[in-house]
Amino acid sequence: MSHLRYEPRPPLAETEGPLRERMLARALARWVLSHGGSARLAEMAGRAAVAELAGDTALAPLADDAREALRSEFLVGDGNQPTPFVLDAQGRFYLWRNHRDEGDVAAAVRARRTAVVPSGLDEATLAALFPGGDPARDGEQRQAVRAVGGRRLFVLTGGPGTGKTTTVLRMLLRLQRDGLAGQGVAVAAPTGKAAQRLVQSLRQEAERLRAHLPPDWQPELDSLPTADALTVHRLLAYSPTRNAYTRGPDSPIEAGVVVVDEASMLDLAQLRALLRALRPEAALVLVGDADQLNPVGAGSVLMDLVAVLEAQGAPELVRLRHSFRADTRLVPVNEAVRAGDGAALATALAAAGERAALHAVEAPAALAREVRRWTDTLAEAGPPAPLAASGSATPALRALAARQLLCALRDGPFGADAMNAAIERQLRQRWNVPADQTWFAGRMVMVTRNDYGARLFNGDVGLCLAGDDGTLQVWFESAEGGARGFAPGALPAHEPAWAITVHKSQGSEYGHVAVLLPPDPEHRILSRQLLYTALSRAKHAVEIWAPRASLEAALSRPLQRAGGLVEKLRA
Ligand SMILES: Nc1ncnc2c1ncn2[C@@H]1O[C@H](COP(=O)(O)OP(=O)(O)OP(=O)(O)O)[C@@H](O)[C@H]1O
Known about the structure:
16% strand; globular; Rossmann fold; disordered N terminus; 21 strands; 21 helices; binds adenosine-5'-triphosphate; alpha/beta; 6-stranded parallel beta sheet
């Protein structure tokens, strides 16, 4: 029963072709038939495996006759004993592993929710943590700091710029003061880049706060985890040789408080592993935007947890609603998309004036026009000036975040790869770059694999600049501030970054964002979460490149993954 053992799973590639799906379905179907299963079960198993690739942890409840037939199969159980497949009481069909993971997560969450050690917080301490604050704007942040005390599970959710990281910092200071973080604090995120950003923001905010807090807070400020950026994989000490996590019940994570940021990217298997690896008395704080895209792997754990806790009015959830972004004109745009409200979106786009535009891009010719217009703006200022030996690459790197094209798809004529090729071709022409020269000043790339030695992470964006002597180097912002330059040949795997997928943009912010959706309204990538994730990356301006039908399709489709976690969490 080899398929019972392939865990933990490496993250799946962003796009999975139909060929791979067919091969997987056929392989599993063959396995079922060769182990005495029926043709019906073979087909079901194949469907469940393909559904898992798309993120579902189970097939949606089956019709009564199908349930009856499957219950008589000896390869199918009810989940109480290990069997390759599970049919639950509601008729959901599972691969064993996903059923077990849902059950384990729900049980661990239940245990953590009930184990509360009451821990009060006096208003003076709270006020000290929000110097010069205004409860009308930061009331929910204060509530989070209040409510986290003594809990073993806490969830903080909110849209972009609502102050999640700012609040995490204050929660950690409070927990340190309570002595609850005495066994140490670990902060992590699903991706290396997000982990690095988290630590960087915590460090900056801690320094800002240091100037305002009374001196007796120095020990708490000094013990904040502002040095190590860990991915969840590293926090769990993943061992490639054993294909297993080293951290688990027998060797738990040595921390009294574990914070995981960008938790919308956590899949079901990762959350189970994390919960198993915590000390029973440790506090887990999950932080993220529950309305963002679901993880690449199966499940939608943050969305499910938030839905259940919110419906119950549970104190271990706080949703931050106030946006602290300087420019709030795009807030109604994001809210309309979050709610899937087309009429509200039209109003919000109109009210945003020149900050928002909808371009009805349906055919390749219309797309080519938009790409030309976009590239003209990028090309206008010319390639970046050579960097003097004493100069800093930081201003040029910061300028990169001014404009970003985000694509729903990677492949095909409307995908990020094609957009990058078109933009690079036009920039080369405009800047007279010789055809045989791969690298040129102004080339923008994104790292696609973590390189811990070089401290470059999947998702890091770099810019090629010429030195005084004409030598080309690729520069990256460093976590400590400043920039680090690499010879182009020394970079880990990378690709052009003028256009990136919406998936890759999670956790980043840009000034002006253009979002390209596929023109086929039936395309399954289109969802409310995809559009929300893309548009909410923008701080000042957005453009949507899509026919109205694709936009409407995206708005009308809340991405609901099939599975039974919500029900188990409610039980
Ligand atoms: N209570 C507050 N008072 C004043 N400014 C605040 C407050 N909370 C957050 N901010 C400011 O709002 C901005 C966003 O805060 P923060 O980075 O904590 O938000 P976030 O929700 O983590 O954002 P992101 O969407 O980037 O993850 C920062 O500039 C921060 O200083």
